[in-house]
Amino acid sequence: MLGFALPQFGESACADLARFASSAEQLGADSLWVGDRLLAAVTPSVGYNGKDTIPERFRTCLDPFVALAVAAASTRTAMLGSSVFVAPWYPPVQLARQLTSIDVVSGGRLVPGFGIGWSPEEFQAAGAPFRGRGAQLDELLDALDALWTEDPVRHEGRRWSIPESWVGLKAVQRPRPPVYLGAFTPAGLKRVGERADGWLAAVQVPDAVNVDMLDWQRRFIDDAARAAGRDPSDIHTHVRINVAEGTSVDAVARAVATLSDNGFGDAFVDLMYVANDTDSHLEWAERLLVR
């Protein structure tokens, strides 16, 4: 199964999102995905992906919930995923309402993925504490689980409190949408094994498709799952393929094939660095999907 990130960042944020979503599905895309950026600090205390800076494309970003809603209204079969929502930015009641609404209007196609983020400036702007992000993610997942599966709902946590209340809007997917977590550190991978329905892995083309590393991370998840009394086979994997500037279509196609040949058959491709408008995104998608 092959999907694509929606044209959401940089120049592509002005693209015809609805046309891309419907056309990509017609071409055979199995899934469509959003990312989550709030702003790009002028002088970041932490840069992106181990660097000192933040990519210029992150200065412009379509809201991910709006993008998923547009994609939901423009498609019929493609799964609609997030890789990832930065969980601690969002109060759980509002987040659950937005995600549940997307699942309802799409007929049960939501694949919500969460992470803990990395930019202190974004956390400051969101009014969220940067420290203790893992604990905040755990609490948010607890609250979402209650909001999706209980009625009335009640949650008492360290950061958020929900008084006993009726919340009647529930997701089409039962008992709730599958929760995916993006992770690559031991603590994050352990959390995937202990409580997630899926893992969002990541590679970069052309120079960082490391199947051995993916296998090691997956084994870590499986060990954590077994220790928690869970069946590792119940935890699905989607691999995000980040395409570096100047990469060829053939190189991406080889990466997709390599992943599939090694047990990572479900992937989606992020084209933000090689496509700047709807037509170029669709050209890439068509060339990859016909192979």
UniProtKB/TrEMBL annotation:
Domain spans labelled Luciferase-like: 13-260
InterPro entries according to UniProt: Lucif-like_OxRdtase_Rv2161c, Luciferase-like_dom, Luciferase-like_sf, SsuD_RutA_monooxygenase
Protein name: TIGR03619 family F420-dependent LLM class oxidoreductase
Alphabetized NCBIfam families for the sequence: F420_Rv2161c
Class in the EC hierarchy, top level: oxidoreductase
Family annotation (Gene3D superfamilies): Luciferase-like domain
Key words of the record: Flavoprotein, FMN, Monooxygenase, Oxidoreductase
Keyword Transport recorded: no
EC identifiers of the protein: 1.-.-.-
A Pfam family hit: Bac_luciferase
Any one GO molecular-function label of the UniProt entry: oxidoreductase activity
